[in-house]
Amino acid sequence: MRKCTLMTIVIVFLTFFIGSLQLETKASNGYGWGFKKNTNHEVPDIGAYQDILNKYGAYYADNSGEKNIYLTFDNGYEEGYTDEVLDVLQKEDVPATFFVTGHYVESQPDLIERMVDEGHIVGNHSYHHPDFTVISKESMRKELEDLEEAVAEVSDQKELKYLRPPKGVFSEETLDWANELGYIHVFWSLAFVDWETSNQKGWEYAFDQIMEQIHPGAVMLLHTVSADNAEALEHLITELKAQGYTFRSLDDFVLKDKLPEGIYGY
User: Fold this and answer.
1) How far apart are the first and last CA of the chain?
2) Catalytic one among 62, 74, 194, 228?
3) Residues with Cβ < 8 Å from 90, sequence gap 6 or more?
4) Is 74 a catalytic residue?
5) What's domain 69-253's architecture?
6) Considering the entire predicted model, what is its pTM?
């Protein structure tokens, strides 16, 4: 009898525990951001994703045809190169957006403060970097709110409005949730494998990868853990300016896109 009672208790507990987990997780029905790279210096075609992004007011590139570039960096941890990146951005008077995680904010508060003080935008990359498509709406809300609060504690930026989903994974549901929470998804139209810290190939490699894919309206994804990127950045900015490109912030892009035609001007 005692064994039966104990077994019943265990079954009830497991049923409750598993049921609770199911409230916080769900099967993934998401998409992984991606597109076929091209070298014709045009905005990459993203196929059916374009309709989804249009529906939820998300972005991956500036399709105006103007020679604008939007620098974005994903920061999950620090390898000692972000100060160097910020030095170059300051010297060249170039704005950027840094999508950061909770770990980064906790471990590098001085760098977050410097980003904001020097006029850059801090974006939300979530607190713990989960796949949004397998967690609940409330869990996603907490990830975003906790990160926003952490940034506000160490800098003068009190609100975050741009979101880059962890791992580039999204669904129509998570895009909709983000909108409800006041966020705008920003993906990218130019990237390469630059985050493997043990497999850096020299700044010329990073330079060539970017120049091969560059196009008007590029939203460029880089990682500051890359020694190659840190060393290549000034070369890139100088060359792209010489080619007639202008570096702008995401605020310029989004504001211009949301205003009626003819109202916004540089």
Assistant:
1) 81
2) 74
3) 118
4) yes
5) Alpha-Beta Barrel (3.20)
6) 0.87
